[in-house]
């Protein structure tokens, strides 16, 4: 019976909307209620420190190379121990598209995304974050990782002195 | 003070009252519609301005007034400026014949609670609802835009087709009331409302009147997702606001018409008559908002098909049946 189906289809929606009328809306009323994004949410980008409290960033430029909108720029420098760091580090959040490619490119886990999504500003120049705005105290997502414990030849530890390394091999001892 | 002056003064007071109440109701009906639709879609609707969004209509008016009043290049300027007023005006004028309470006896004089109790009130309302088409058609024509023109043409065809069904739905009501006057029609429903006497006529009337007022299941003239805004695509600022207000005033007029013709007007137990009248009007308005939240828009050919091939024959059959029953009852 097509007619019966049509009549049913005309009146059923009315009951559904009437039911919804007395349900609680699903809206999150933003300034008063804030949703908590998941921990791996990609919002404000920070520079983290290693467990010893030193800057993780070694100014390798991989993040700025990976960045599809070219919003990261920096100047590399080297201290007296041969440890590299960024003399200045600039991230333009007015260009950033929060794709997270910089965090994937980073070999030292220095640059990381955080769930802090409220970075709007009326003054666009305030969205250009310098190194001191980006640098945070703490390790971010990995509490234990320290780049110079695994790599960085002879900068912090002696050659072959890292945890997962062994010393230089004497080639003459390898003869058959 | 002579008699004529008092009568004139009373009419002026009633005019002012109706004008104020209808315009205020129209403004808050917009808010009510937005809030109810929002709740039906599990959102809140406007709730930021004032407590619960109660000042939203005022803000909307300020916004509309301060916006640029844009007239498109090569539009027919005077017709363009004049059309929105016609829509709002015809909607407001329909209220002149709507009785909202029984006549009041005050200081030994009978005050009818209607601005003008015309003995051809039904025809007057039909005439005005036909005139309301002109606002839409002239606005659509004068805009010099193809979307507006399509909207105007659609609304013209739609209103002409559904006016027939609307008229036929009211014929049984007039047959039982034996009068064209709206007050007489309400008086004839003292024992039970016409809704129970003529249920088929009521259904035809509700469908036809929704099409007549371009409410959502039948809002082809302004179908947003096909023809942008239909006849009011090119309008901005308060001129758009007038179209908008006219639409909501006509929603109230429809509520009043349904109340008068089918729901027994001001008749009702316990509460004062005016309260019953307003409650019934608001209930009908809620029905239309509910329909807007629930029903999709049919295709244009389906609309015409339904009007001419279903509603019109049904209306004719209903008239014949009512006539037969009346003849049988009166011997």
Give a short overview.
The complex is a heterodimer of chains A (176) and B (331). Chain A has helices at residues 2-21, 62-66, 101-105, 131-134, 147-150, and strands at 45-47, 72-78, 84-92, 111-113, 128-129.
Number of strands of chain B: 2
Q: What structural category arises from helix and sheet content of chain B?
A: mainly alpha
Helical content class of chain B: 55-70%
Shape of chain A: elongated
Give the total of domains of chain B.
Answer: 1
- Poorly predicted segments of chain B: none
Pattern of helices and strands of chain B: HHHEEHHHHHHHHH
Structural class per helix/strand content of chain A?
alpha+beta
Question: Average pLDDT across residues of chain A?
Answer: 86
CATH architecture annotation name of the domain at 37-149 in chain A: 2-Layer Sandwich
Chains forming the largest contact: A-B, 13 and 13 residues
- Give the strand line-up of the largest sheet of chain A: 2-3-5
Fraction of helical residues of chain A = 10-25%
**Uncertain spans of chain A, ≥5 residues at pLDDT below 50?**
none
What's the CATH C level of the domain at 37-149 in chain A? Alpha Beta
Summarize the main sheet of chain B: 2 strands, antiparallel
Termini of chain A, distance in Å?
Answer: 91 Å
